[in-house]
Amino acid sequence: MTTIVDTRDVALYEAYDNRYARQEARFGVERRASEKAPIIDISPFVTQGTLADRKTVAADIRRACIDIGFFYVRGHGVCLSDLAELDRIGKAFFALPFEVKMKTHASRNAADRGYTASGGVEPDKTAATFSDIKERYMMSRELAPGEPASHKAGSSQWPDESNAPGFRGFMQRHIRDRLVLMNRLMCAFAMSLELPETFFEKQFARPGVTLALN
Q: What is the average pLDDT across 206-211?
């Protein structure tokens, strides 16, 4: 049962209704007003730090999720040079001639992976209701050895190497790196809930994964 509070007594909560009251009796939690989005260093989970350090990070994650519902991460193991290359290689793809990009249009793919031009997947049907001015390129993770096709995994379509050199190889590796990060975060979330670190392993053994370049 949620405890109802007078939001006029709580700074920064004036815009919230009582569904988001700061006290929640069932779980013994109390929200604290936040002026900044938390930045949490998760490196103890990435580098297998000490149990004490991982517990400290897990407690920070729990507090962030209670207070505001999201947080930034650092110490995530994805190097800045890879993020810079992701930006470069993505911009290089979008700079290709339109007819080249259309060779990997999402409509050619059963899982809707690939390129989508401005206007969305079906621009003629949506033009009167909203304007979608972005281009995007959607990819999924590769199938694990022996894994049956599911969750759109292994369904990416890729531009020809001659048009986008290095695009496929880099993106496949980058998605793998993000999957490693996902698994580390699952351990952190489990510990933040006072569960065994491996609690979510079975549920996320074959995750549905989408990486989108916008």
A: 87
What lies within 8 Å, CB to CB, of 172 at 6+ separation is 142
pLDDT tens sequence across 151-191: 678 889 999 999 999 999 999 999 999 999 999 999 999 99
User: Rounded distance, CA 212 to CA 96, Å?
Assistant: 17
Please give the Cα distance from 130 to 120 (Å, whole number): 10
Only one residue has tokens 């505001």, namely 68
pLDDT range class, residue 3, cuts 50, 70, 90? very low
CA neighbor of 107 nearest in space, from 96, 91, 123, 130: 123
Residue 171: exposure state from Cβ atoms within 10 A (0-12, 13-18, ≥19): buried
Instruction: Tokens for 108, please give them.
Output: 């050619």
Q: Are strands 23-24 and 2-3 parallel, antiparallel or unpaired?
A: antiparallel
The span from the CA of 141 to the CA of 206, in Å, is 10
CA distances from 128 to 116, 117, 123, 157 (A): 18, 17, 9, 30
> Whose structure tokens read 């993020």?
83
- The arrangement of strands across the sheet holding 211-213 comes to 114-116, 136-139, 211-213
pLDDT for residue 20 is more than 80:
no
Which one has a higher pLDDT value, 174 or 4? 174
Token pair belonging to 30:
């109390």
Judged against a pLDDT cut of 70, whether residue 2 lies above it is answered with no
